[in-house]
Amino acid sequence: MAIGKNVWRTKKLKKYMRNYLLLLLYFSSVLFPLLAQEGYPKPNVKDLLFYIQHNRGKNTYLYQANIDKQGKIDSNDPVKISRQMFDNNAEIKSITAIQRKFAYGIDSTPQSDKSYELSLVSYPQQRLYLRSNADDNYFVETTLNGIKMKINRLFIFQKEGTSGLNTKVDYILFFGTDQKGKHVHSKLVID
């Protein structure tokens, strides 16, 4: 009879531990990404579509709608990319040719007057879409892990021990809002 009680206790303990681990994984997946950017500044620039930050400094890459004086988007270059040097008095500079070609640049393909398919040069598999609403306000959206979102920011976790042109990425966190306006985030693991 004692053996039967121990088996029952072992099964109950396994079930308890499994539930505990699932709960721990859930909270770590929800809370960790939110805490990961604690202390990072938020850029405040005109026509901002989204921005990218990473775990190796506070400098921020800005992606703005490239609007001409008539209020139309530049069809040849719809997204203006720059970097805000928060590590250096928040100065805004152009990105370098190397950054544009290998890391933070954008490839764009027009779909219509006010819609473009975009991709980051460093990860062209993830499609982004530049669109405008009825008020001609531009935004970028994507679908990641089944979640369709209007992107606000991306946070890149770079692998330790890599830098420069040999930089490797563990994953990218996408933050934005869904179609109902609810804040959402999703993780893209880079193999």
Question: What does the model show?
Answer:
The protein has two helices and eleven strands. Strands 1, 2, 3, 4, 5, 6, 7, 8, 9, 10 and 11 form an eleven-stranded mixed beta sheet that branches. It has 191 residues and is α+β, with helices and mostly antiparallel strands. A hairpin with a 5-residue loop joins strand 1 (48-54) and strand 2 (60-65). The model is unreliable at 23-36 (pLDDT under 50).
Give the structure's gist in a few sentences:
The protein is an alpha+beta fold and 191 residues long.
Features:
21% helix, 11 strands, 11-stranded mixed β-sheet, single chain, alpha+beta, 2 helices, 191 residues
Radius of gyration from the CA trace?
A: 21 Å
Helical percent range? 10-25%
Quote the average pLDDT.
Answer: 84
Strand content: 35-45%
Structural class: alpha+beta
The outline comes out as globular
State the separation between the terminal residues, measured CA to CA. Answer: 51 Å
Poorly predicted spans:
23-36
Largest sheet entry: 11 strands, mixed
| Secondary-structure element pattern, one letter each | HEEEEHEEEEEEE
